[in-house]
Design a protein that fits this description.
Strand content: 5-15%
Number of strands: 24
Low-confidence stretches: 244-276, 680-730
Mean pLDDT: 88
Helix content: 25-40%
Number of helices: 25
Shape: globular
Length: 730
């Protein structure tokens, strides 16, 4: 509780001397722009894999403007040509540090589909052109900076660094990779919402502190040689026991077992503490990178511990050995206050792409230029989503007045505004101002979700403030319509029928996206998603209020193929449900194991980290391999004739040949139209990029019934913060 209230207001620092030279109309990207501002050098340079759009849905803009408000001169190197170091020298060497980010998405998710095919477009690049960033962008950019500026401090951040801050499973190489901090040889890694940490880092470096001395800042990770004096080390088995392991590599055996097995290797010696110390001077030791790399059960155990130790109110520091170094992970950042959130989103953003792009269309910007972030964070805890790992479970909300002022700013200053606000939201549409009823309980809680398996009795689910915001927003002069395009948490919405009425009658443009994800209890339990009953209750209310308003409106449900815990039978039942309800998925993508997600731990280990992990604990069915993933996607697109041969073979194998034929209950016909039966190679359509952080933030594009609509805005990360297109915790 003390820690939750102890954070310094990020706008209370004494401004750096260069404040008299700022703000800039756009943060400079060339020497000429620097000189026009009267700068001889930048204090901080942000290198990003995205095009520079000065809008608060883009991480580089938020971090840049927040640092500028502190009085620092900030330059941007956007989408540099990584094939040469020259592109990284255009602004010279910064006085303080380089901040490096892949952009609003993990670069591997940005470049590849869930089937590991190269995407044909990039929403964060002018013209939507693909290929403007390298694989593992943060590593490549950091290497280039080191090549020309050997001693310059490097700080990495953004979604790619945030989700790769410890040893993590990498889907594209099918192996456990070490922390990104080691692969980049950066000085510091900043994870999560980075404003609080980055402001302290900048001011301390400006005051002359060496970067190696910045070891106590929340939301950061760094390397050290040994445990500092005065700290107590906790074996992670004191929190959660992974079960018996071969003694030669086991860092978790009880002391008696260890003595019986003989002296263990020095690298495996870990102090076992029976009484758990408080968070202030205690560090939890995770199994080493080398151990989780060779043992999937230990990987699942480490993933579980990471998520248990994620509440800023009670999280302890984590340490994980990588070779002869310890990776030290400080507790998560203290959530921002409404006052801080208001100030961040009301900084002097140009709300336009940099003029150097000559008016070229940037698809991600087109999606979000008339949308507004009203909150960050998500307490849903969906296992496939990366929002929790990045933004945390505690909701950070802006004030109503601040949101209204931003609407007025868009109305009065943004070119092309026609009176329609495309979205008021965040990772989830309807978590604004929802929170635990007790700050004391919130500060000690270790639940992975506030709404699964049921809504916590301590959770405030009152949607009245949100209803009031909607009404005030749409009543503003010059505003014709306020749409809600972020993912809606419908199990929360049904707690407030008045909210569903307000939404259906005033804030839906014909279609509303929601995400049941599945209908079977098996996969839903592994996703930590509500049962289909909540969907039916919401649909009943939505249809009722739409009809009362004389509107014909439809729900557009998302579904995931090949998620851990999903069997062929589960997908068959989902296909039959889709057919019965008249849904036809236009574009589909299978589950993508994003780094650090709990579902990824399931995918890699076959174990369920939602419960204590042991050798004998629950095994999870994992639909792996291209063939099975294609089959599960085919079930979602049962109506596509190209999928019928695959489905016929599967139905016969499953003993369900009765579903092949022309009768009403059949899933696929016997006949095969000429020219169908196989998707033409090289002509597969990419699913639109639904951010990492996803329209669910952990997952990229998934199945969507009827027609896919673009999300209202992309994820707002970088060294940073904001909500992803994420927008969409559905």
């Amino acid at each position: 509780m003390r820690a939750m209230n102890a954070a310094k207001d990020i706008f209370s620092y004494r401004k750096y001397w260069a404040a008299r030279l700022t703000p800039a109309p756009f943060l400079p990207v060339t020497r000429e722009e620097m000189e026009a501002l009267g700068w001889d050098a930048c204090d901080i340079i942000v290198v990003t894999g995205d095009a520079y759009v000065d809008h608060p849905s883009f991480g580089m803009a938020i971090i840049g403007r927040v640092l500028e408000a502190q009085g620092f001169r900030v330059g941007i190197i956007a989408q540099p040509d990584w094939r040469s170091a020259d592109a990284f020298t255009v602004l010279g060497r910064p006085k303080l540090f380089f901040g490096i980010t892949a952009g609003n998405m993990d670069s591997m998710v940005n470049r590849y589909t869930s089937d590991r095919r190269i995407r044909s477009n990039d929403a964060y690049t002018p013209g939507g052109t693909a290929g403007k960033r390298p694989d593992r962008s943060v590593i490549v950019y950091a290497q280039r900076v080191r090549e020309v500026f050997h001693e310059a401090p490097i700080i990495i951040g953004g979604i790619e660094a945030s989700l790769r801050r410890i040893a993590h499973f990498d889907y594209w190489s099918e192996k456990i990779r070490r922390s990104l901090l080691l692969d980049t040889r950066a000085d510091l890694l900043v994870y999560g919402n980075a404003e609080r940490a980055i402001c302290e880092i900048a001011h301390r470096l400006a005051a002359g502190d060496p970067i190696g001395a910045l070891t106590e800042i929340r939301g950061t990770a760094f390397l050290r040689d040994a445990l500092p004096e005065g700290w107590t080390e906790i074996d992670s088995t004191a929190i959660d026991t992974p079960g018996p392991v071969n003694p030669k590599i086991d860092p978790y055996a009880m002391e008696a077992e260890r003595l019986a097995a003989g002296p263990p290797p020095a690298a495996n010696v870990v102090r076992f503490v029976k009484r758990l110390p408080t968070a202030e001077r205690a560090v939890v030791r995770l199994p080493a990178h080398e151990q989780v790399a060779s043992d999937p059960v230990l990987y699942a155990h480490a993933s579980r511990i990471l998520h248990i130790e994620s509440n800023p109110g009670n999280a302890r520091a984590l340490v994980q050995q990588h070779g002869d170094k310890d990776l030290w992970l400080n507790p998560p950042p203290i959530p921002l206050t409404s006052k801080e959130m208001d100030a961040i989103y009301e900084l002097p953003y140009a709300r336009l792409p940099h003029p150097g792009y000559g008016g070229a269309r940037i698809p991600a910007y087109e999606m979000i230029r008339f949308s507004i972030t009203i909150q960050r964070g998500c307490f849903g805890g969906c296992t496939f989503c990366s929002i929790t790992e990045h933004e945390g479970r505690i909701i950070q909300s802006r004030s109503e007045d601040s949101v209204v002022r931003e609407i007025e700013t868009i109305r009065d200053t943004v070119p092309g505004f026609t009176g329609v606000i495309s979205d008021l939201g965040g990772p989830t549409a309807n978590m604004w101002r929802l929170h635990c009823k007790s700050r004391e309980i919130e500060s000690v809680c270790r639940r992975l979700s506030c709404v699964y398996p049921t809504i916590c009795k301590n959770l405030n689910t009152d949607h009245t403030p949100l209803i009031r915001l909607y009404r005030r927003a749409r009543a503003l002069p010059g505003v014709k319509k306020v749409l809600i395009a972020s993912g809606l948490r419908y199990d929360l919405a049904v707690q407030s029928p008045e909210y569903v009425k307000e939404l259906a009658q005033h804030h839906v443009g014909g279609y509303l996206k929601i995400a049941p994800e599945h209908i079977a209890e098996g996969p839903l339990g592994k996703m930590m998603k509500p049962g289909v009953g909540s969907y039916y209750r919401f649909k009943e209310l939505f249809d009722k209020y739409s009809k009362e308003a004389g509107k014909e409106q439809y729900l557009i449900p998302y579904f995931i193929a090949a998620h851990p815990g999903t069997t062929d039978e589960d997908m068959l039942q989902l296909a039959l449900w889709l057919k019965k309800n008249g849904y036809r998925a236009d574009q589909v993508q299978a589950f993508l194991p994003s780094p650090m997600a709990l579902a990824t731990a399931m995918y890699h280990s076959g174990k369920n980290p939602l419960h204590r992990v042991t050798r004998a604990s629950e095994a999870v069915h994992i639909p792996k391999g291209l063939k099975i993933r294609r089959l599960h996607k085919a079930f979602l697109r049962y109506h596509d004739a190209n999928n019928w041969p695959l489905l016929r073979a599967a139905l016969k194998r499953m003993g369900r040949a009765d579903l092949i034929g022309s009768r009403k209950h059949c899933l696929v016909p016997i006949y095969q139209p000429a020219g169908t039966g196989q998707a033409p190679e090289g002509k597969r359509r990419d699913s639109p990029q639904r951010p990492f952080l996803t329209q669910h933030t952990g997952l990229p594009p998934q199945g969507e019934a009827r027609q896919r609509f673009p999300s209202s805005r992309p994820p707002a990360f970088n060294l940073h913060p904001g909500s992803p297109t994420g927008r969409g915790k559905r």
